[in-house]
Amino acid sequence: MTKKTTKADINFEQELWKAANELRGAVAENQYKDFILPLIFLKHISERYELRRDTLTLMLNDPKSDYYTQDTDEQRYVLEDSDEYLSKNTYIIPKKATWQFLQDNAEQDNIKVLVDDAFQLLDDTLATYRPDLKGILPRIFVKSQLTAKQVAGLINLLANPKLSEKENPDSDILGRVYEYYIGKFAIAEGSGAGQFFTPGSIVRLLVEMIEPYEGKIFDAACGSGGMFVQSLKFLKAHNGDKKNISIYGQERYDGTLRLCKMNLALRDLSFDVRLGDSLLQDKFPDLKADFIIVNPPFNVSQWHPEDLPENDPRLFGPREEFTTDGNANYMWMQTFWSHLSDKGTASVVMANGAMTSNNKGEKNVRQYMVDNSMVDCIVRLPDKLFLTTGIPACIFILSKNRDGKDGIHRERSNEILFIDTSKMGTMESRKLRVLTDEDVNKVAETYHAWRNVPSKETAQSVSYENIDGYCYAGTLDEVKKQDYKLTPGIYVGSEAIEDNGIPFEEKMEALKTQLQGQFENGNKLQVQILENFKKF
User: Which of 203, 316, 327, 406 could form a disulfide with 230 if both were Cys (CB 3.0 to 4.6 A apart)?
Assistant: First the structure.
């Protein structure tokens, strides 16, 4: 598919943090999301309803429209017909649950009650048509420490026309607002944000590498749904159709699952996301996904593998030999593999330790995966990419589509591609690094050049070649000789140092002269400093 250029969009970021600051003092920063994101969601659902009602009103009064009628009863019937809204994937919203009602009453002393009542009304309305959305909007404002003035300030700031889908119908504005806040709240929340947030540059890399154009997409630790949203962006960028994907997810925490459901509903996506611990309570035992995109919790210990059935179908072998209570990393791997379709591919963020661990319950799984040609690619990531953990990370690409029989991908069942991106990325702050679009494209193109059959249709002009210090296509025998260690640095070697042509002897003499000069200058400076001290 050709990739379309994204047009320039509305710049709204400067307006948004002002809204969050309305909560300062009354609400901890790590709870900002619990108050702001549901309001954004209500605003989105309400504006979709209003847009549809406005469209119907125009058609009813347009003589050229099939809806045209001067009969007021017929007009009222159409405007109150739920099917007219459901056909456009929206719903009739009770007046007291609309954004306009909250905005009109923002200065009322009982605005906290009105917001909670609106949440309850909207929650009940949505549950009528989408039972899976029941409970998405809990009553939280009345019991909070927020003042009526703070709530009014928050509503008025979010009422800015820049943040309205009615004013900016082609901008996905509220989806972008939601995404912006998720990222900002993750920074504020720090280590606690890991359950709902994966940095955007990592998500883009995961998605760009495995290219989920169509099929079932699964995330067994889906957090706030970032992997699904990025998959939608990928489709839009490549002129794809979201009707060609089906979304499935599982999340352990109820509050995070609510964030995910709101996030996906904002994008007008259909989905099936369920509550539960994917390791011990797999809610999709029969699901076979074409794409798995996931950042599971790293290095989870004491996760109780003894609670697994002895014959758990996910396990590659006996439970005692293929699990360990000390670390769940490779139980995640076995879970993901069990959910792949016959041609499925998974992109998995994992702790670096998983590439080399010698613990029996982990190494046995890694060895099995290598011996059975499950691992397609390993990417070592740079440090400081995560807000929530200092643990070095990597990406495992697992694939059941390595036999080269689909005509798109070449046969590579005896190879693993190793990519080392440890020198990539740009420091956005002292503590946080991000992968640039150029970095993401380079890694994805390297993987595709190695994996894909050259095609005239895709105009793939880049042929794969090993590059010292960056990428290497290793054989399974090479990996076995390294005791099944998967660290890219073992295979890619060191980056070649450019030779400027100056003989070694001349370089050494020049360095020696330079060093002697620096010693002399240092001695002079020392004498001058001591002389200055004598003057005090």
Answer: 203
Q: Could you give phi then psi for residue 276, rounded to 5 degrees?
A: 155, 160
> Please, are residues 369 and 375 in contact by the beta-carbon 8 Å criterion?
yes
| Short-list 227, 234, 276, CA closest to 395 | 227
Q: What is the CA radius of gyration of the chain?
A: 28
Q: Which residues of 192-211 are buried (b: 16+ CB within 10 A; e: fewer)?
A: ebbbbbbbbbbbbbbbbbbb
Q: CA 22 to CA 152: how far, in whole Å?
A: 9
**Residue-wise DSSP of 147-206:** -HHHHHHHHHHHT-GGG-TTTSTTTTHHHHHHHHHHHHHHHHHGGGGGGT---HHHHHHH
Report whether 175 contacts 267 (CB < 8 A).
Answer: yes
Which pairing describes strands 340-351 and 393-399: parallel, antiparallel, or unpaired?
A: antiparallel
Look up residue 98 and give its amino acid: T
Q: What is the pTM of this model?
A: 0.82
pLDDT in tens, 51-62: 999 999 999 999
Q: Which residue has the tokens 């420490």?
A: 145
Write the DSSP symbol of residue 75.
H
How far from the centroid of its chain's Cα atoms is residue 534's Cα?
63
Strand partners, 347: 293, 397
Token output for 387: 């807000």
Three-class secondary structure of residue 340 per DSSP: strand
Rounded CA-CA distance 333/328 in Å is 9
pLDDT digits (tens, 9 = 90+) for 69-116: 999 999 999 999 999 999 888 999 999 999 999 999 999 999 999 999
**Which tokens hold the place of 18?**
């002002």
Which pair of tokens denotes residue 211?
């290219």
**For residue 146, how many other CB atoms are within 10 A of its CB?**
23
Task: Specify the 3-state DSSP secondary structure of 452.
Answer: strand
Confidence of residue 2 (pLDDT cuts 50, 70, 90): very low
